[in-house]
Amino acid sequence: MTEQAGRWTWRLLRGAPLRPPGARSEADFVARCIRCGRCVEVCPHRTLRPAPWASWAAVGTPTVVPREAACWLCLLCPPVCPTGALEPVADRRSVRMGMARVNASACYAFQSVVCRTCVDQCPLAGEAIRQDDQLRPVVTDRCAGCGVCEHRCPVPGSAIRVEPFRRAA
Amino acid sequence: MRPRARRFTVWRRAVQASLALLFLALPAWNAAGHRAMAGTLIALRIGPVDLVEPAAALSAALAARGGTIRLLVRAMPLALLALALGPVFCSWMCPWGLVSEGLDRLRHRGGPARSGRRDRPLRAIALGTCLALSLLLGTPVAPLLAGPRLLTSLPLEMVALRSVPAVTGLLLLALLALEILGPRRIFCRALCPAGALAAYLRTPRTLTVITDTDRCRCPDPAPCVASCSWGIDPRRVSRLDGCSGCLACIDVCPTQALSPGFGRSGPGLPGKEETCDRGESARVKVASHSEATCRGERADAGRGAALADAPCGSRCSDSHPPRRSRDLA
């Protein structure tokens, strides 16, 4: 019961969830999304999921929960959106879903353990995330926020998290 | 007279069932890599053709405080369908309509439904609330609660989540409870925003049921009224009754007095009845006679009415020209 309430509160405080590629700013996206489910249907990786009750007015809108399933930047979803909630994206390098952030106190590479899972798995290999001279991961501003690093991180609960972009409307 | 085959109902069931099967198969088809078709009933994409249900489009335009031309173009096909044929979206296409009709059949076997006129205020309130909430909450509430979306999105969400989706599942359970415990077909008739908007798009030239008063001779618990799950008397149907064009009344009419047609519905419209009082009563009397005596008498009655009250007679013949001209010829 308390755990459930805690999870709800956390979801409420966490703010905007991670959206599919090409999504408008959060308020604009929620205003335009008619929950038709096309993006959810065409997603070949079953990444997009309808938002649960706890997202209040945004219930039913597509979200990405990277730890469960990350976006592989196939870009099939933006063209199928009927209302323009998802805008067309030219290529995977211009996707801006969010920005990954490394939690240094949890990351293995920061504890002198050799781990380069996030660097190896990144779909924008060598561009969005690279290793510094001490072999620690560094996220660059080319990060698309797809969440593959968060999905694949071997640390329990993930040492790298994608923070959704808060674009101005 | 021998009743006609239930031709419209047979076609309607075929269309409803194929669309229901399509939406059941679509998620699996997409999961297998085919992308020619995708979506739910409120927004279906068939190759290059992109359809959006008008209430959903309007709701999204209100929530976003401004629609786009592209959205308007995509909402046009279904809006034009409603303008031409009325809310056939509900009776011919919507899988929730099929479920609702099935449950209604189980609950009430052939009894007359609550009068359709009582739905009018409720329909206005329901659609108004949905659109006002869209504006206030900044999110399209109409498609969120629409039965057609919920039912057609259930299979795709089940495929995506690999389990029963909580939100869609619970909303569908609520609809099911309303269907079983509430007044007959109340959700489809009055509460569904998609159906309500389509009902309001009806024009005086939209497809409706035309009554041939010469043939209409059923006593008062008429089979057409009993067949209408929307509680409409097809002989007195008016624009705001919400007739969804299922044409079940035409199928059950034993005298073939009802037919689908564009233009003004039956002569029984309130107001028109008063102006055409004399001609009307003459024809009703004729209808109770046998076919042979009827013919001569009707011509007399018609001529008499025309002589006695020319403007009234002409107005009556305006309301159902095809039958009259054929009868006179």
Question: Can you walk me through this structure?
Answer:
The complex is a heterodimer of chains A (about 170) and B (about 325). Chain A is α+β, with helices and mostly antiparallel strands and about 170 residues long. Chain A has 2 domains: about 1-80, no CATH class; about 95-165, Alpha-Beta Plaits (2-Layer Sandwich). Chain A is about 25% helix and about 15% strand. In chain B, β1 and β2 form a beta hairpin. Chain B has 18 helices and 5 strands. Chain B has helices at about 5-30, 55-65, 70-85, 90-95, 95-105, 120-135, 140-145, 145-160, 165-180, 185-190, 195-200, 225, 250, 270-275, 275-285, 290-310, 310-320, 320-329; strands at about 35-40, 45, 50, 205-210, 260. In chain B, the strands form 2 sheets. In chain B, strands 1-2-3 form a 3-stranded antiparallel beta sheet. By secondary structure, chain B is mainly α. Chain B has 2 domains: about 5-200, no CATH class; about 205-329, no CATH class. The longest helix of chain B has 25 residues, at about 5-30. Residues about 270-329 of chain B have low confidence and may be disordered. The chains are: A alpha+beta (about 170), B mainly alpha (about 325). The interface of A and B includes residues 28, 36, 40, 49 and 53 of A.
